[in-house]
UniProtKB/TrEMBL annotation, chain A:
It comes from the Bacteria. Keywords: Cell membrane, Membrane, Transmembrane, Transmembrane helix, Transport. This is ABC transporter permease. One of its GO terms (cellular component) is plasma membrane. Residues 99-307 form the ABC transmembrane type-1 domain. It comes from Labedella phragmitis. Belongs to the binding-protein-dependent transport system permease family. InterPro entries: BPD_transp_1_N, MetI-like, MetI-like_sf. GO terms for biological process: transmembrane transport. It is found in: Cell membrane. It is a multi-pass membrane protein. Its main location: membrane. The lineage of its organism: Bacteria, Bacillati, Actinomycetota, Actinomycetes, Micrococcales.
Automatic annotation (TrEMBL), chain B:
SUPFAM superfamilies: MetI-like. Keywords: Cell membrane, Membrane, Transmembrane, Transmembrane helix, Transport. GO terms for biological process: transmembrane transport. The keyword Transmembrane applies. This is ABC transporter permease. Residues 77-267 form the ABC transmembrane type-1 domain. Gene3D superfamilies: MetI-like. It comes from the Bacteria. GO terms for cellular component: plasma membrane. It comes from Labedella phragmitis. InterPro entries: BP-dependent_transpt_permease, MetI-like, MetI-like_sf, OppC_N. The chain crosses the membrane at residues 12-37, 81-104, 116-136, 142-161, 191-213, 249-270.
Length: 315, 284
């Protein structure tokens, strides 16, 4: 177990290192002068020599590439991600003001998605028939509706037409816990629908496959009640591929939360990220990409470890 | 002939036929957009802004600048489908190459292609990596094709890798080698044709994912750049007026959902048709 944890974390750290290098290369492998490309906005737009020079200095592009790379890695390790082009504040400070909101939203959406998804998938796999058809049709639709469409339709239906929820915004937990949760509910639900679809589909096919195993027939022949066979034998042994799918799905959600936050005007990382992309505030974008990618890798390690710990076969 | 007909009939349910019809209709209409709706999708007519669907001369109404919604949907479809197709093609070529090389040679080649490139790309949340690239290179069609082509390559790589592993042990590959076939011949003329079925299925799935991601970036204003028409952009601008006229968001929303759903259903049909052994988690 210890060696497995050590190995998994080692691979994770290696991955973080390669990801950091790739992010560094993404800007420095630009054909031509990175400062000129960043200042001009790709092919379109023009840049003055002054703005290019200023950018070169801010990013340290005038130093040798190896020095830049080592500076960059040292910065990441010591928690220094540079400062914003626009307001000169340290990137780390700005990110950690917003990150808790995004994490709260994503965690809530994941919980709803995992619980409802596994329940629906298990029901479809166990009962078959119209339950199965209904869940299968729902999953197909759920994974085909973009987050921004679903969020917009939710606002149209639940806020503008029915008036049950505010259309968006944010109230801190300290100021008013009820309003805080009311504002969190629609964005979380929006994010969780696709998650429910993927999880339900995965659970269903895994349950169907497990039900065909010999030892399930053995359990039945012992005279165990169908519900006991299902909950103790089939469902528990169907969870391995589901856990893996959930780990990957969390990463996708860390990206799609950008869209949900945008639709509901939610003050997470999204507004910061989109504004920074529009204004080509490269240090902030780079900082957010680093934080989210590392978070994603960490989550997958945790999912793996927790699963190892829970599954008696691999413990 | 009859067996082939039966196989097609078996793989296509009514819903899947409808999906195929929808995709074909969309392709034809978007190609013929200038003939079907001979209106400039950028032409503003402020006097006739926000007309509801069914208004005379504007089948789907007009947007906040008085631009014809049908013209924008169809011209948007063309850009949308071209970007998605371009990205899927880039991803298919790149990913298949990685998977073939990694699976056929193994060892160091496998580490480089599957671990170092494929797994690392999967360690980024897609939207986030796309936004990083857009920051550097600026938004636009070519950026989208390049970035999504790279993002979706690992999906192809994993599938082709797995298939290549099992195919390379078969007798006909040994036979080709015994006859003195060059490595490139063995790879592209012997192994590749035998792993095409899952590539085609994956292509349809990636089309759906690409439209999903591209329209999301356009919704943020970081994909197809306004005023050029895009479905995501139409939802974004319609949001401000949906309280008075829900069709501003419903029309583009329905089109984008149906398109993504159709490519997903088509993938299921193709899987049943081309690769009957791999029936897993079907749509409907």
């Amino acid at each position: 177990m210890i060696s497995f944890i050590a190995k998994r974390i080692g691979v994770g750290l290696g991955l973080v290192f390669v990801v950091l290098t790739l992010i560094f290369l993404a800007i420095h492998a630009v054909p031509g002068d990175p400062a000129a490309v960043l200042a001009s906005g790709g092919a379109s737009g023009t840049a003055t020599p002054e703005s290019i020079e200023r950018l070169r200095e801010q990013l340290g592009l005038d130093k040798p590439l190896v020095v830049q790379y080592l500076d960059y890695l040292a910065g990441v390790v010591t928690g220094d991600l540079g400062s914003s082009f626009r307001d000169s504040r340290p990137v780390v400070t700005t990110i950690f003001e917003r990150l808790p909101n995004t994490i709260e939203l994503v965690v809530l959406a994941c919980l709803v998605g995992a619980i409802v998804g596994v329940a629906l998938g298990a029901a479809a796999g166990r009962f078959g028939g119209w339950v199965d058809s209904l869940v299968t049709a729902f999953s197909s639709l759920a994974i085909s509706v973009p987050v921004y469409v679903l969020g917009t339709v939710f606002i149209l239906v639940f806020s503008l037409t029915l008036g049950w929820f505010p259309a968006g915004g944010f109230v801190s937990w300290q100021a008013d816990p009820v309003a805080h949760l009311r504002l969190l509910l629609l964005p979380a639900l929006t994010l969780s629908i696709a998650f429910i679809g993927v999880t339900a589909r995965m659970t269903r096919s895994s349950v169907v496959e497990t039900s065909r195993m010999d030892w399930v027939r053995t359990a039945r022949s012992w005279g165990l009640t169908p519900s006991r066979v299902f909950s103790r034998h089939v469902l528990r042994n169907s969870m391995t591929p589901v856990a893996t799918a959930i780990g990957l799905e969390v990463g996708i959600m860390l990206g799609s939360t950008v869209l949900a936050e945008r639709v509901f005007n939610f003050p997470g990382l999204s507004a910061l990220l989109v504004d920074s992309v529009v204004n080509r505030d490269y240090p902030v974008v780079q900082g957010i990409v680093i934080v989210i990618s590392v978070l994603f890798i960490a989550i997958n390690i945790v999912v793996d470890l927790v699963y190892r710990f829970l599954d008696p076969r691999v413990r | 002939m009859l067996t082939r007909f039966r196989r097609i009939a078996g793989a296509f349910t009514v819903v899947r036929w409808a999906a195929l019809a929808f995709v074909l209709l969309l392709v034809v209409l978007s190609v013929l957009a200038p003939i079907v709706v001979p209106v400039d999708p950028l032409a503003q007519d402020v006097a006739n802004r926000l007309l509801p669907p069914g208004a005379p001369g504007h089948l789907l109404g007009t947007d906040e600048y008085g631009r014809d919604v049908l013209a924008r949907i169809l011209n948007g479809a063309r850009v949308e489908l071209l970007i998605a197709f371009g990205a899927s093609a880039v991803a298919a070529v790149l990913g298949s190459l990685l998977g073939l090389v990694g699976g056929y040679f193994g060892g160091v080649a496998e580490f480089l292609t599957m671990r170092l490139v494929s797994d690392v790309l999967l360690a980024f949340p897609p939207v986030i990596l796309a936004l990083l690239i857009v920051t550097i290179y600026g938004p636009g069609e070519w950026t989208l094709i390049a970035v999504m082509g790279i993002l979706f390559a690992p999906g192809f790589a994993r599938i082709v890798y797995g298939q290549t592993l099992s195919v390379k042990r078969l007798e006909y590959v040994d036979a080709a080698k015994a006859f003195g076939a060059r490595t490139s011949t063995a790879l592209f003329r012997v192994v590749l044709p035998n792993v095409t079925a899952p590539i085609i299925v994956q292509f349809s799935l990636v089309m759906a994912s690409a439209i999903l991601l591209e329209s999301g970036l356009s919704y943020l204003g970081l994909g197809v750049v306004a005023p050029a028409p895009s479905w995501g952009g139409m939802v974004a601008s319609g949001q401000r007026y949906m309280g008075n006229d829900p069709s501003t968001i419903l029309v583009p929303s329905i089109v984008v959902v149906f398109t993504i759903l159709s490519f997903g259903l088509l993938a299921d049909a193709l899987r049943d048709l081309l690769d009957p052994r791999a029936r897993k988690g079907s749509h409907a």
